[in-house]
């Protein structure tokens, strides 16, 4: 029997209701899983961390970065501790936004330059009683701080605004409450920003934006004007340029990644365009779907000039070697959503994603090969640690450049977390100790053999 005209709208409404209910149930189920995972993490966190501080912010910070410098302080009980400094940007729609320099107290044991005999056996009482963030200084900021980067040579900070402008702040200037200069070029907001890591090129800053362009800024810190223009424009990408990274060994070389699914390598000594241009760089080789995904983030390795990593919306991280730029050296699969942040530190790689997770990868295990993804319980041997302390998309993550294994993460859940993973790298310490012990045993055996030879001669 056919449906009448009056019945059809009712059935259509019913179908729409079913779809709406399915979406609602899926959302509720996802929230339930997130809450359960967070409860499990919270119960096990005392075993997973040497240190874990959690701060609730008035609004979710979009960007954070550690400063290199720190100082050792002594409390009233003659106990020593470290004051580490962190720069963070606020993200508020209704109220004034700020760039904030905050101080965090951490145990003295995190510093590498203290001898084991000098270490205290317990955490100072001052740290146990108070772990509050102390605001050292703050600067007014027009709109939210999309991205911030600190020049490690002079403590000038650059921030990417939601209007496309880039602002320069002098962190050392205690009297100034606003930015020193405005860098004007980009017509849309962006997130790509990085200072040149070489001392003789410390005046160079790169920026990228949703206007599909990369700008190079040559900044004279001694004679800053109120408004600056870029010294060079690069327009080699066909879509949004999401991130950029200077090569840590070659001062004129940098990488860029884009929504056009390509990565490019540029050399400022040449004006003929990128020296490497790899299209369709992120797709799943094990899938029949050959869709090419946007690439969101890139970072060069600090020690190996040819090695760099990219993270994409295919949820993967790819390790590349410039000596063979068309094929990734290795592919990491551990995130369940797009990868939006990467940070190399020695032999480790820190990755962050909108799956609420921050992962640490051990590049020393690259030779062990990729796991068999056909197995349901496969686990990448390079995956060394997972931080599960957030219930919202990770906005930014940073590894302290000096203090041992000290991390900072911020997310859309409004939390800023300072943490140090337990046992990270312990296997290498154990291996070194075993090697030293084996060498001592060999020396002892050699000494005994020589003694026996002498006695036999006598």
TrEMBL record:
Q: Where in the cell is it found?
A: Nucleus
- What residue stretches are annotated with the Histone-binding protein RBBP4-like N-terminal domain? 36-107
* Pfam families xrefs: CAF1C_H4-bd, WD40
Report the GO terms under cellular component: nucleus
- Which processes are annotated in GO (biological process)? chromatin organization
Going by the UniProt record, its keywords in alphabetical order are:
Chromatin regulator, Nucleus, Repeat, WD repeat
Q: Which Gene3D superfamilies match?
A: YVTN repeat-like/Quinoprotein amine dehydrogenase
Composition bias (Acidic residues) maps to: 427-440
Region described as Disordered: spans on this chain: 426-458
Q: Where are the WD repeats?
A: 183-227, 295-324, 332-364, 387-419
- Give the protein's recorded name: Histone-binding protein RBBP4-like N-terminal domain-containing protein
Q: For bias kind Basic and acidic residues, which ranges apply?
A: 441-458
């Amino acid at each position: 029997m056919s449906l009448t005209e009056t019945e059809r709208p009712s059935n259509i409404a019913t179908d729409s209701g079913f779809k709406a209910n399915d979406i609602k149930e899926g959302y509720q189920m996802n929230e339930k899983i997130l809450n359960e995972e967070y409860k499990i993490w919270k119960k096990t966190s005392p075993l997973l961390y040497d240190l874990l501080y959690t701060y609730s912010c008035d609004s979710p910070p979009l960007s954070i970065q550690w400063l290199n410098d720190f100082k050792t302080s002594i409390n009233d009980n003659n106990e020593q501790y470290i004051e580490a400094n962190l720069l963070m940007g606020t993200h508020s729609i209704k109220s004034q936004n700020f760039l904030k320099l905050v101080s965090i107290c951490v145990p003295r044991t995190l510093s590498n330059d203290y001898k084991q005999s000098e270490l205290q056996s317990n955490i100072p009482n001052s740290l146990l009683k108070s772990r509050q963030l102390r605001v050292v200084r703050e600067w007014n900021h027009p709109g939210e701080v999309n991205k911030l980067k600190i020049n490690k040579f002079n403590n000038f900070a650059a921030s990417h605004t939601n209007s496309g402008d880039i602002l320069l702040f002098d962190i050392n200037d205690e009297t100034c409450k606003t930015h020193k200069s405005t860098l004007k070029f980009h017509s849309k907001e962006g997130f790509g920003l990085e200072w040149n890591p070489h001392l003789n090129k410390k005046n160079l800053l790169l920026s990228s934006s949703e206007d599909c362009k990369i700008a190079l800024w040559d900044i004279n810190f001694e004679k800053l004007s109120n408004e600056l223009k870029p010294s060079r424009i690069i327009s080699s990408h066909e879509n949004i340029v999401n991130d950029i990274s200077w090569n840590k060994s070659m001062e004129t070389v940098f990488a860029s990644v884009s929504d056009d699914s390509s990565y490019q390598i540029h050399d400022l000594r040449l004006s003929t365009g990128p020296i490497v241009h790899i299209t369709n760089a992120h797709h799943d080789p094990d899938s029949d779907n050959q869709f090419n995904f946007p690439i969101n983030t890139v970072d060069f390795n600090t020690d190996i000039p040819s090695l760099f990593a990219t993270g994409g919306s295919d949820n993967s991280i790819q390790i590349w070697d410039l000596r063979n730029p068309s094929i990734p050296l290795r592919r990491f699969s551990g995130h369940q959503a797009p990868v939006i942040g990467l940070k190399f530190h020695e032999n480790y790689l820190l990755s962050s994603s909108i799956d609420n997770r921050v992962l640490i990868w051990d590049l020393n295990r690259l030779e062990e090969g990729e796991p068999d993804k056909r197995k349901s319980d496969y686990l990448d041997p390079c995956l060394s640690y997972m931080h599960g302390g957030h219930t919202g998309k990770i906005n930014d993550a940073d590894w302290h450049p000096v203090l041992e294994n000290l991390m900072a993460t911020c997310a859309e859940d409004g939390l800023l977390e300072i943490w140090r993973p337990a046992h990270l790298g312990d296997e290498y310490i154990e291996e070194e100790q075993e090697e030293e012990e084996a060498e001592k045993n060999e020396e002892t055996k050699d000494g005994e053999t020589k003694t026996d030879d002498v006695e036999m001669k006598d």
